[in-house]
Amino acid sequence: MTSHDADVLPGTRRALLHRIAVAQRDGRAPSLVAAVRRQGRTAWSGARTCVEGHAPDADTQYRIGSITKTFTAVLVLRLRDEGLIDLDDPLEKHLPGTGSGGVTVFQLLGHSAGLGAEAPAPWWERTPGSLRPELADVLGDRPQRHPAGHRHHYSNPGYTLLGSLVEAVRGVSWEEALRTEILEPLGMHRTTSGPVAPHAAGWAVHPWADVMLSEPAEDLGIMAPAGQLWSTAADLLRFAAFLTEGDDRVLSASSVREMRTPAAPAETGASDYGLGLQIVGGEGRVLFGHSGSLPGFVAGLWICEGEDVAAVVLANVTSGLPAAMVAAELLGIVVDAEPLIPEPWRPLPEVDDELLALTGVWHWGTHPVTLRLTGDRGLQLTPLGGQGRGAAFTYGPDGTWTGQNDYYAGETLRVVRRDDGTVDHLDLGSFVFTREPYEAGTAVPGGVDAEGWRGLAD
């Protein structure tokens, strides 16, 4: 079952259908829905089911588990952008009495607060939230498993605290804040805290026999911000578009970029984690999004910004089907078969001769680099030969540039001129770049040997 098939080529369409058919069969899922978004619209959607004559579609609800955390993170970033909180604030400043020490909002968002992975028994995902009415019931007697800020340690209680933070600052329930601040502005009318028909039922499939067991669909209560939501493939692709470009009604483009910046060192072999978003690399591309699971359901949502493609997979089975992996593979099928056609090269709209004079080869000591002029008076520093440090720089109103990535992120690049106005050197966080290696007559720290360069015989 597919829709919008004209948006992908027949061979791509068949490859996508084949992949989800194999996933549903091998993962023994009662049903599976998948969809792909490309360049602003749904390019393909498909479903597989074990029920003859009936299949879910992109408007059928499934439970999305921990993808809920990304929504909670958006609500927290909104508070920061409105000046109501700071990410470096200790949680206790806004939510006193939790017993979580001095953990910060930032650490909670990136799972580096050192809190436990799960709430105390009984298993919170399969029991009513009414068993844990207070934060103390979620955190237990020993909330802290590791020193705050020292490592990434995924924590469901941590996102419970963030949901309670939203409620404390907003003065409304997490669910109400979610509906009015995210779901309604983005038109996500099929994303809800409880199931709304048409929706799938959750199932467990026996590991050694082809028989099924119904899974309970519990209301998670105070832990809802960690995994409560039900959604559809169509709604999650709308969310994917927002996470790619931002939407000023919800969160700016710069803030959603911040969400997908790694926030803490990941465990060996693990993906990175930003602020409510997982970041994974492979096959020459970087994906961001989130996986999700609750008893009876698995989900995966991945986005490739560079190719402007997103993919989602939802299935109603407890285990056995790696939804996040399949979603990444669907994305890869589209990107590999139908790579994005780049926009034509165009020259800059205008030329600034003073900036143009800065381009070309510079030297940090004996390391050669090139400086290239980009749009909006930006600069790109690139090591000559591919070895060394480089970065993109954005222009500021004070006439300097600020590094945007890697080693030079946040560092200031400025032009240092002689008394006659000519350029002496570039200063990048105290590093001096000259036109020639250790150029004589230029303000190089430590000075330049007056005897100059020499050979062995000298």
Overview of the molecule:
The chain has helices at residues 10-26, 68-81, 91-94, 105-109, 135-139, 156-170, 174-186, 224-227, 233-245, 253-259, 323-337, 353-356, and strands spanning 2-3, 31-38, 41-49, 62-63, 203-205, 212-214, 230-231, 272-273, 278-282, 285-294, 297-304, 309-315, 360-364, 367-373, 379-383, 391-395, 401-403, 412-417, 423-428, 431-434. The chain starts with a strand and ends in a 24-residue tail after the last strand. Mean pLDDT is 94; it is low at 1-6. The protein has an eight-stranded antiparallel sheet, sandwiched between helices. The chain has an eight-stranded antiparallel barrel with strand order 13-14-15-16-17-18-19-20. It has two domains: 2-337, Beta-lactamase; 353-434, Lipocalin (Beta Barrel), CATH 2.40.128.50. Helix content is 25%, strand content 22%. 41% of the residues are buried. Helix 1 (10-26) packs antiparallel against helix 11 (323-337), helix 2 crosses helix 6 (156-170) and helix 2 (68-81) crosses helix 7 (174-186). The chain has twelve helices and 20 strands. With 458 residues, it is α+β, with helices and mostly antiparallel strands. This is Beta-lactamase. Residues 351-435 form the DUF7586 domain. InterPro entries: AmpC-like, Beta-lactam-related, Beta-lactam/transpept-like, DUF7586. Residues 24-329 form the Beta-lactamase-related domain. It comes from Streptomyces griseus subsp. griseus (strain JCM 4626 / CBS 651.72 / NBRC 13350 / KCC S-0626 / ISP 5235).
